[in-house]
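ingest -> validate -> predict -> emit
validate: passed (alphabet ok, no gaps, 726 aa)
predict: started
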Amino acid sequence: MNSQKNTEYLSGNIERITYHNQDNGFCVLRVKVKGHKDLITVTGNSPTLSVGEYIKCSGTWHNDYNYGKQFKANFLKALPPDTLEGIEKYLGSGLIKGIGPHFAKQLITAFADQVFDIIEQRPELLATINGIGKTRAKSICSNWQYQKIVREIMVFLQSHGVGTTRATRIFKTYGKDAIAIVSKNPYQLAKDISGIGFISADTIAGNLGIAKDSLIRARAGLSHVLLEATSSGHCGLPYEALILNSQKLLAIDRELIILAIEEEISIKSIMYDHIDDIPCIFLTSYYYYERQIAKILLTIKHSAIPWEVKNIAQTLLLIEQELAITLADAQKAAIARALSEKLMVITGGPGTGKTTLVKTLLKTLESKKLNIKLCAPTGRAAKRLTDTTGVDATTIHRLLEIDQAHGGFKYNEENKLLCDYLIVDEVSMVDVALFCSLVKALPDHAGLLLVGDVDQLPSVGAGQVLKDIINSGVIAVIKLTQVFRQATTSDIIINAHNINKGIIPNLTSPKEGADFYFIEAELGGEIINKIVTMVADRIPKKFHLDPIQDIQILCPMQRGGTGARALNVELQKVLNPNYKEGIVKFDQIFAVGDKTMQTENNYDKDTYNGDLGIITAINQQEQEVTINFYNNHHIYDYTDLDQVTLAYATTIHKSQGSEYPAIIIPLTMQSYMMLKRNLIYTGITRGKKLVIVIGQKKAFAMAIKDDRSSNRYSKLIDWLQLQDVV
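emit:
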């Protein structure tokens, strides 16, 4: 009763949006209210807001200790403005692409309070405004209609318990049918919309009245558990583990989950099989990826070699003279073996001669008049392969070419690559889905050489392709172990091999000219301060390296006091003088000059997970950000910036396949769950000229001693050993 008596009503025009959380709609507004001399601070929740809009709200006055008197709105509704001043601010706020403050003023001058009607009903009149023209007028009308539909979707989603940041993406996927599709089956969102997972979809479903024990929810939850398993590297899960994980997620009876499994098997959404006699369930796509990989590899292995093998010793002697190198006996034997095998794996750590072996093999095959192609998983790895071999290499995605019109790749089982011999580097980071696409596009007659370091972290995606191929015992493997003389002068390489053997490096003061340093520091704040000083000042001065282009911070985790997120905030302040003029999107500041990373594959833009770029322009009127990835400029709408993150610091996982002139790795016990030998080994081997590990000795030692790699549920070994896969 008291709260009703205290409820007051307030209305006015939004002059400034101080804060708006796009995930939950919480906002802090500065509002011009009739009868009040000063602007009023209003807090509340609204899915979408723009400067100039007229708001009606009800709530109570509240005296905040830090921010003073505020109106706390329990109900808040935004309406189009009805004053000329409000309309001008609304149009000039950037909400409608193509209209900034300049054109907003011209539109108000020409059409006054009829401007909204003109845009909707007589858009041809917009072209009469100097500087707008037919093209811009068409764009303004299109964006106006677009915003109306997006607003409806955002309001609908907000009213059903989901944030509004994905509204535009939902509209792009479903168009005007978005509300109808979401209402019919909200779990479809988790399958179709990047960034919306099962939890968000389940929230909507609950608000729409879908029962917790409904079969549609059980089936959706089951698929989610299996999909989450692929994010952890698994191609499937043991039957019992799937049931337990599903029960934990859904809080429903075991019998309902078993029924959901049976339903999904009946429509072949999932597959039932065994791994080492353990009953397992697989998402159908991943089940067939591994089976197809095994079938193709075994076909390559057992087919005839399309080149002659003769005079190898004489050929190698000529190559040694041409390249001014001396091959070890083991390297000569490896090349002879590679020439006699149509399918082979070369694996070894840094400094063991993998690059020399590949370069020599390429020279040997030159005389065979073969069409040879080289590829690697990432742009940086492909560039390094090009630099070290002198032969053009490309990423796997660019080799296969994205088919924009139909999805998938242009080169596939029906349209094979023009290739006689394919060399794939950094295979340890290739997941089963991509590897399957690659081998399906390989012509039947072509040879295949797989190169990688099996002791590094496995792929971010599902599977452990290189490890399984080696452990199957079916495919020819050359494991290089000898560290060659030129590599023994590098502390980076020596320590990497010691770490891989479980030996803790000498952490005392390094000799002059060393390329590996350990700096002891206990507290997170101390570690961050030292990293900032080293990156901004000490390393550039001593080693003549660029702090943005040449130095990379590699963290075990994104989160935490010394995680990538925290370090990016601090490094941005020091390294980018433009950061204060940046835009805030998805809880990050993006400014011109920022170092960024693509965090998911975007086939439309031809940018891929792990690609590094620099922001070169921000167009606030068009709501677009331009990012330069490897001398290719790509334009991102503001709503797509959740695909991008600051990258002064990144995780070791994200650095796979890349090398940097200098790296810094912060290690603390805060990251103890991630501290594994293969993580530290992978991180250290990313550095070419300088590696600095900073943090706690205890954390460093724990990581080196823990050689337990996470077990991944994969059936590739079984398929390879079966020998007659169909």
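The mean pLDDT is 87.
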